[in-house]
Amino acid sequence: MAMIMNKCTSVTLTRKLSHPCCFSSDLFSLTANIRPLYPSTAKSFEFPALLLTFLNRYSVSPFHLNNANVHFTFDFNSFYVSFIDNSTHKTHLNQIHAHLLASGLQDCGFLITKLINVSCNLGEIRYACKVFDEFPDPDVFLWNAIIRGYSMHNMFGDVIEMYSRMQMAGVSPDCFTFSYVLKACSGLLALEMGWRAHGQILRHGFELDVFVQNSLVAMYAKCSQIRHARMVFDGLYDRTIVTWTSIISGYAQNGEPIEALRIFSQMRQSNVKPDWIALVSVLRAYTDVEDLEQGKSVHGYVIKMGLEYEPDLLISLTAMYAKCGQVTVARFFFNQMKLPNLILWNAMISGYAKNGYAEEAVGLFREMIGKNISVDSITVRAAILACAQVGSLELARWMDDYIMRSECRDDVFVNTALIDMYAKCGSLDFARIIFDRTLQKDVVVWSAMIVGYGLHGQGREAIDLYHAMKQAGVCPNDVTFVGLLMACNHSGLVEEGWELFHRMKDYDIEPRHQHYACVVDLLGRAGCLSQAYDFIMNMPIEPGVSVWGALLSACKIYRHVTLGEYAAEQLFSLDPYNTGHYVQLSNLYASVRLWDCVAKVRVLMKEKGLSKDLGYSLIEVNGKLQAFRVGDKSHPRYKEISVELERLEKRLKEAGFVPHTDSVFHDLNYEETEEILCNHSERLAIAYGLISTPPGTTLRIIKNLRACVNCHSATKFISKLVNRKIVVRDANRFHHFKDGVCSCGDYW
DNA sequence: GTAGGGTTAG
Question: Are A347 and A322 in contact (CB under 8 A)?
């Protein structure tokens, strides 16, 4: 065997190999000959395997080796490339690096570039940096390699820093550099930087590069500049699936799912076939608009394309089903997943929470914690939303306690959700504690607290907070005013509410349906029904369900049948399948004893296949929620409850309580009516609360419907008779009963 | 060696 050194970059090997069977041992001897040249590397690598790869590259088969004198050039660069490519650890790279330096190859930039790329692939970004810094005069490839390393590890700040160092070093960027830089701008939401990069791209003449173009579209979309993204997109002649996906997801991310879907159909017309990432974006848009049918058809397409095993696409499908209310289907997918990732957990939990499956949401959240799966602020927010729905203060306390010990404790979004949760679970005091300890309160934090006060009918506190908010230099928004107007309504501050409504224009806030509905409610509460009607007629926007609903409520309170009928007509045409409107009208008729009309409404409902929602009340005792339905006798302690109920009834009568009979749905005779009223679920819950808690304990009740006049009146009496605070959350708001009065001032 | 995706939403 002969070995001729050809300077430092290659050797030529000539060898006559004797026998077919000896191939591996021949390789071994070959190795043995090379080894002294490279003592350090030879020790650490699977040298023969590498050499075999190498021989293949030069089309030297074992056959050749066995039958002829083999004569080939051993190229050192390729040799190093093989070594670098096959490295699996930093120590390998370090040896090669040392060897390169020792062989005088340190100037061979492309090998160092390779070394840096592989280091970065192995996650050794610090090491890559060290190698980079030791290289005397890096070219654009080397700069790109180190920038790529930072980019692939989402270290976008470092990408930008290296980019500016590169510019200072006087090295011109290329298309690759700009792809990385734009991606970093997207990641950092650094629009200013993105603008500058765009300018430089034009100056360098890279605006026609498809990668650069796609990166620009994505950057503008991520930085909420969807119009600019669109301008770039519209200017493109060649659009790849990546371009289309960027603009589609851009619209979806910027809250314009309809436009996203419009562009998707354009894409289909251009005969561009979607891949799984494109479908993920499309699914997101259908998820946002909660279009189950279209979502399902995407699912069909996924199956047709054979993409149903793409894990991340399955996650999007699960999220779509969960958000569109198909939680059982979603759960099926969820269960199929071997190792659900955080996004999937979040999609499932928020799907449950959003669709009223609060128990399931909380259960899944507990499961995550039990399994030590790390959660993020999105998980926590979905769980908080579920707790707010459940309405259990005990559960709310548990959630709060968990968050205090987690990394989310200073997250503004999480704290806002906590304020909302406590308010909805009946405790403004705890809501206020969260509010007070939230640093850097933004307008939404202030608004959440104001809405909380509104929910509980504490109008004065809401208005005080509004002034404090302005004092703190925070500008109110439309939600703030919804909270304020609601607060005024719920506590009878008619003048103040009217005044606040007119302050909205000082902040350039266009009133929306909710604001108008609040004003109608305010006027209605004051008994100014014709003013309320005029106000509606002069609205600059078409009055919607909430506005007519407010008018109908007021008509019911003041027994104004003709106006009430008019409002109901509007409601029936806008929202024909909402049972509540029919019940309201029926109650209005009942209040003036127009039993024929009550019957007519009942027939109307029957024709439309509607039935009155079953009322139920929940009461929390020792952290457990107990449900009571109207006339429910299934409770294990029903006997005791009914004894207590009778006792209460007797005491109520003695105290001079006269049942109101006009709020019932049926035109029954007096005795029957009274009995049904007595069994109203709220009363059952109170009776149970009284027998299962020590004297003086506040009773907390949650109802699914609005409070009825009779129960409301009775609960006022009871609060005085038994000397208890009773907090009732109905479908609309909170009632705090104490000493015979309710915080709502008898208007709700 | 470059570009595109998902979970929340007061």
Answer: yes
